[in-house]
């Protein structure tokens, strides 16, 4: 049998590669973005109790209504923004499925989609498998600032969508209100859809505020927000997330959603809905992760790595240019094998694999793991 791959340039993701290497060499795994401590017992108990009380059959296609109500209340509380629970919120199998489904619902062959590099790795394949064309805009270390004149020059009549992500994986930077206003200005009076990947909305540091698209009236009416309970509640393996959008956009989304997953794990949805009734479950996250970031940074302050403190997400990028000139993928593999610590090289998220000598470390780890990581990083 012969077939031509629809994604000829896609191989195994760097996350799989580095995690496999970390396991093979028994290295500390600070590569992939997941916690190495348990999800809250109370939440686990609520999911168990949902199973024991009969939430074991298909959830409604758009998601458990109690969960959609809890999400709607959260947007009202945090941003004063209204999303109708029945028409404007859909529960998804993680943010990844939401992103894929949004792109499939709107992108036709030759449509252009602007993304900012370094970019989370699921955006580009979703665009390309649907025949779209990725228009990358490269941001540079250490500040990853957007040049809005460059964005303006890349927008054309073919631009169908712009994908944004703040707080940003992998750089740990955030977009300011000025960035959002620039985006709003450039897209007003266009048909451009914004996909705003806000999976780290509750992980933002030093008293800064998350700038959600929903707080900018013109952006809101053209935007999808994607979110992930795995990131918020420390259980990435459950793969439950959601998206919000005005009802006209959401009704197109659901046409695809109902045929690519139909509905999502029901007991987890019910358990999360009950858990979210206490808003501290998500509002306490900033402080929890800021302590981890600060611990990690204090432990590596005497190392040869250079850094600017992460402003959001649970990632810290470290510049190793004072240590070696080695290509970042090779250096990350070398550190895993020889120093027993795994990270993610940033070049894999960049345009043309551009190497700026930067590695990404995940600090969603126990303090014990962070202390061990600090000891290793100071020896390099
Ligand atoms: C920026 C970003 N978007 C989306 C996702 C995917 O989230 P989920 O695990 O809910 O599919 C991740 C996961 O690492 C991410 O970092």
Topology:
Blueprint: H1 14-24, E1 28-29, H2 41-52, H3 65-79, E2 89-92, H4 94-106, E3 112-117, H5 123-129, E4 133-138, H6 148-154, E5 159-165, H7 177-187, E6 193-197, H8 217-220, E7 223-228, H9 229-232, E8 241-244, H10 247-260, H11 266-275, H12 280-283, H13 285-299, E9 315-319, H14 328-339, E10 341-342, E11 344-345, E12 358-362, H15 367-379
The structure holds pyridoxal-5'-phosphate (PLP).
How much of the polypeptide forms β-strand, as a percent range? 5-15%
The 3D shape can be described as globular
Catalogue the unreliable spans. Answer: none
How big is the Rg? 20 Å
Measured between the Cα atoms of the first and last residue, the distance is 50 Å
Which compounds are bound in this model? pyridoxal-5'-phosphate
Main sheet strand line-up: 2-8-7-6-5-3-4
Overall average pLDDT: 97
The helix fraction, in percent, is 40-55%
Decide which structural class fits the backbone: alpha/beta
Give the total of beta strands: 12
Sheet with the most strands? 7 strands, mixed
Counted by DSSP, the helix tally is 15
């Amino acid at each position: 049998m012969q077939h031509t791959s629809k994604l000829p340039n896609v191989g195994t993701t760097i996350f799989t590669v580095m995690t496999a290497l970390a396991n093979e060499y028994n290295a500390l795994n600070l590569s992939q973005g997941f916690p190495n401590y348990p999800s809250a017992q109370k939440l686990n108990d609520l999911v168990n109790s949902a199973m024991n009380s009969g939430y074991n059959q298909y959830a409604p296609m758009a998601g458990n209504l109690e969960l959609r109500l809890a999400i709607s209340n959260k947007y009202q509380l945090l941003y004063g923004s209204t999303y109708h629970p029945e028409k404007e919120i859909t529960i998804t199998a993680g943010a990844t499925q939401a992103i894929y489904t949004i792109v499939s619902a709107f992108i036709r062959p030759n449509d252009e989609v602007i993304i900012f590099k370094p970019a989370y790795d699921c955006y580009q394949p979703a665009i390309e498998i649907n025949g779209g064309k990725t228009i990358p805009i490269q941001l540079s270390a250490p500040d990853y600032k957007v040049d809005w004149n460059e964005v303006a020059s890349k927008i054309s009549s073919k631009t169908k969508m712009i994908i944004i992500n703040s707080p940003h994986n992998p750089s740990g930077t955030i977009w300011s209100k000025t960035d959002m206003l620039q985006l709003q200005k450039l897209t007003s009076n266009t048909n451009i859809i914004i996909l705003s990947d806000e999976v780290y909305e509750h992980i933002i540091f030093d008293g800064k505020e998350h700038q959600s698209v929903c707080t900018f009236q013109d952006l809101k009416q053209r935007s999808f927000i994607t979110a992930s309970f795995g990131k918020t509640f420390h259980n990435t393996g459950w793969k439950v997330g959601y998206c919000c959008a005005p009802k006209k956009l959401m009704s197109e989304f659901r046409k695809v959603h109902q045929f690519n997953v139909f509905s999502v794990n029901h007991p987890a949805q019910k358990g999360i809905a009950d858990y979210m009734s206490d808003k501290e479950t998500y509002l306490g996250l900033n402080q929890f992760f800021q302590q981890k970031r600060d611990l990690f940074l204090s432990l590596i302050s005497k190392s040869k790595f250079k850094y600017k403190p992460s402003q959001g997400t649970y990632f810290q990028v470290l510049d190793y240019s004072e240590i070696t000139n080695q290509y970042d993928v090779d250096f990350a593999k070398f550190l895993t094998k020889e120093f027993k610590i795994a990270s993610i090289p940033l070049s894999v998220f960049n345009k043309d694999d551009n190497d700026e000598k930067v590695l990404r470390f995940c600090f969603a780890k126990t303090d014990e793991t962070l202390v061990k990581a600090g000891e290793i990083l100071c020896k390099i």
